[in-house]
Design brief:
Blueprint (H helix, E strand, L loop, with lengths): L10 H6 L14 H16 L5 H10 L7 H9 L7 H8 L4 H8 L2 H4 L2 H20 L6 H15 L7 H7 L7 H26 L4 H10 L5 H4 L6 H14 L10 H18 L1 H6 L1 H20 L15
Length: about 325
Amino acid sequence: MSENVRGVETAESRATAGGPAFAESPAPVELSRVRQLWHLLEPLHAVLYYAPEVFEEAAALGYDTEERWPSYFPLRAAPLGLVGGEQVASAFYSFSPRMVAEHMDSAWSIASPDAVLKARLRGMDRAYRAIFGDRVDSPELAEAAALARRAAEAANTAGRPLAAANAELAWPTEPHLQLWQAATILREHRGDGHLAALLVAGLDPVESLVSFAAIGAASVQRFESRGWSPEEWTAARERLVARGVIDDRGTATRAGRDLRQEVERRTDQLAAAPWQFLGRTDTDRLADLLGEFWVAVLGSGLLPSESTLGIGKV
C-alpha cells in the first residue's frame, strides 16, 4: 500500500476518494514560447546600451561615450558591485579579457557602481518616455510590467551571478521602469543559463563566437567587436575544425549545427522556470502586451540591425 504523504496526493489516494486516478496538471509553457519571450524582452533591455539619453547620463558621470564600450561595461557590471576585470570577463564570457580590462580597470575610479545604477535608471526613464510617448503611462504597459515582474521574481538565481545581482536591486516604483528591470533580470537569467549550456557543450568564449558565426547567426565582422585577435579567432577555428564542428571554410558541419541547436535547446530549458511559474495564460497575455512596445523599440532605430545574440536567426 502506498503512503499518502501530507500535502501530496497520490494516484491511489485520488482513486480511493472517488476522484480520477490522474488529475490534469496545468499545460506547460512550450519552449518555443520561452524563446519568443526572450526575443520580445531582449530589445526592451538592450535600449540601455544604445539610447542617447543613457549616453548623456553616462557622459555626465565622466565616461567616454564617443563609442559604445566604455559605458557598456560599467552599465552592465554595476549590479555586481566593485568587481574587477577578471570577474566581469568571467560573467560576460564572450568578450576578450583584454577588452574587458581596458574598460574596467578605470571604470570605478570614474564613478561608483551605485552612481552608475542611478544613472542607468535615469537614462532608461528618459529613453522609454521618448520611445513610448503617452503609452508609457498606459494600462497595458502597467499590466505587462506586473506580469514580467512576477516572472522575474520567480527566477531561481542560484549559479547565475548577473541575474542574482540584478534581482537583488530595489524595484523602481514606476511601471515602465519595473518593466525594464524585469526584462533585465530575465535576460541575464537566460544569459547565465546560456553560458552553462556553452560550457556543457565544450565551447570556450572565442569558440562560442566562431561556432555561432558558422551557423550564420551574425557576420564574423560583428563578432569581431568582442575584442579577440585574428590569431585567437584562427586558433579557435582550427580547434573546431579538428572537432568536426566546422569545415575548412568556417561553415558549420551537420554536427556543428546539431551542437548549436542543442546549446539553444538547453538554454531554453534553463530559462523556462519563470514562465512555467507564470503559467501559460499569463505568459501568453504578456507576449501579446509586449508586442506594441517591442515594435516601438525596433522602430526607434536605436538597435543595430545585426546582433551577436542571433535574435531572429536562432
